[in-house]
Amino acid sequence: MIIHEKLLEATGATRLQFDSRETIFAENDIPRFYYQIVMGRVKLNNYCEDGKEILQHILEEGQSVGESSLFIENVVYPVNAIAITPCTLLRLTQCQFYNLLIEKPEISMEINRRISEFLYFKQIMGQILCTHSPLFKIKALLDYLKNNQENREPFSFQIPFTRQELANLTGLCVETTIRAVKTMEKKHLLKIRHRKILY
DNA sequence: TCATTAAAGTTAT
DNA sequence: ATAACTTTAATGA
Known about the structure:
The protein is α+β, with helices and mostly antiparallel strands. It is 39% helix and 24% strand. The protein has 6 helices and 10 strands, in the order H-E-E-E-E-E-E-E-E-H-H-H-H-H-E-E. The protein has a 4-stranded antiparallel sheet with strand order 1-8-3-6. Strand 9 and strand 10 form a beta hairpin. Helix 4 (134-147) crosses helix 6 (174-186) and helix 5 crosses helix 6 (174-186).
């Protein structure tokens, strides 16, 4: 289920456009808005002091961005939200968002679902980060992604991430990620077509 | 074993 | 065109 554009607009949402690489909100900003992606993809990340990127999540059309921080008093965003493609977002003020949740319990339930989904993903990622084998890290991530798909046929799912993105999500370097993916291909755990991973 | 560096080829913007 | 991504290979922790 998604929260309909029409409903958000009726609630007073602002439509925003972002170019690829533009920042939607930054680490340490105070959360004041609810964001939902109408079109495009957004990443949540941090940069460590050596400049290396820690990718926390990649969000797409229909998903909301950073809503979990809106429910906590006196916190700042722990991540940056950056457009990775040209994006259209709808934005509600925190106040508009709260009113919507009070007036529409089904929307409130949907937000619960999304935050739970996010937490679930974070728990999977927690396990992945503690796993030593690069192959199992990649496999666990692919398994999680595949589980969200309707079609569970082997090799029916084209992974929507680049090698670089998989690496930054799992904490591996790209080269190791590439090798792990190649090994998985040899073991017939996945297929590669036109450089895309089919799982 | 995996990260890092370098170098070259490929794809996307 | 130029930057971003993919791949291979060598080296070192």
